[in-house]
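Section handout 9: paired folding examples.
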Amino acid sequence: MKFKPINDTSTIEMVKADTDLKIVSSKKTYDTQNQYSNRERSTIRTETNIKTINITLSFLIMFVSLFFIASSFFKIPPFNEKNYIGYVVVFSFCAFIFFALGIKNAIEKRAWKKAIELNGASRNMGDYALNNTFHIAYRSIILKNINLTWILVFILTYVGVITAVIYGLYNIGKVDFELDVFGGKIITNLDFAKWLDSAFGNTLLFCLISVLSMSALIVFYVIMRLVDKKRLSDLENYLGDRSVQIHEQIQKAKKDRNRAWGIAYAVLVILTILIPLALIVFAIWRAIRRKKVKLIK
């Protein structure tokens, strides 16, 4: 009895070829011509993943904020008793900010992927466009850290002041104003505790949430700075012979960016915090001096 070997292995070869193609496509969709080294691909993949995570987190927080806004309007727990306008304002602000951040990160990711795809084809011609892309990413991260630092300062300043004012007014309780108008007297009662509870439900809980939120922002900021430090270390390897020139340009850009943020911060704090606070303190001092204000706790 004679045995003949099976010569038809087309099925096996087709499956193998298809599998290999899928593996290559999944690993290097942006590098179809194998233009980048393993280290460059690792850096590109890291930057792309970070941008994807930023987009996901931004839109996730936005949708969570929108959910709480809808819960407040439709009286869904934990807002099942009444519509707390204070939380609606806070969550609306958060939804707007993180929507803007999500769009910004999506635009940056699209621009990054397009630059990588366009520059990859020119590597064989001795074009340094890829390195320029890494240079731009390096500069962008440094300036982004400056922006994040000042944004954190703004948030801590305003949220801290607002929380302190709300907590202070809540502890004051009631204020009776007795005013002399055209020879007569007008007595006005301001019940801060009642107003604040109607806006936030539990004012002390709102203040606690604000403090915890500021603490979480600080922790998140520190984590982001540590991650960016690693990213800068990776990107610094691609600065090449122009590293000194690039660092000088970045230092100048950092100085200009810090100056712009510093001026904006000083002007806004003076106009929105210091001047109104000075006017309020002066009005209270005059009222107390004339003995026309009684604080009731």
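Moving on to protein 2 of 2.
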Amino acid sequence: MCIDPHIHPKHPHGCEHRLPHPHHPPIHLGPIRGLLHIAILKLVKEKSMHGSEIHSLLKEKYNLDVPKPLVYGLLRKLEAHGLLHSRWETDDGGPAKRIYTITDEGIEYLEHMLKKIEKVKTIIDRLIG
């Protein structure tokens, strides 16, 4: 899965540009950026949860301080690809929250990707060892 930079057609200060830009600091996730969707799937496999909780756990469990819009965009992409399913839930009269659950296809994809990551990890361990 690839995360493409997006274009702001009409920015508040009137310019049109691609991110990053001096008005928008770049997101420095490096190679981790390509693994972010795997981390999200792994979290949701452990427990169904809403986007804000996923965002918090990315930081807590993996030390990934990722912008919320990036997390929510990935959640929508993962759902569009059939790897996640969501439903709306309300509790105690508060605002409705979209709860994400991993699908069977999502579990298969996650397991496949974790095996690939394990192979890459072996190579990295040899390179730095």
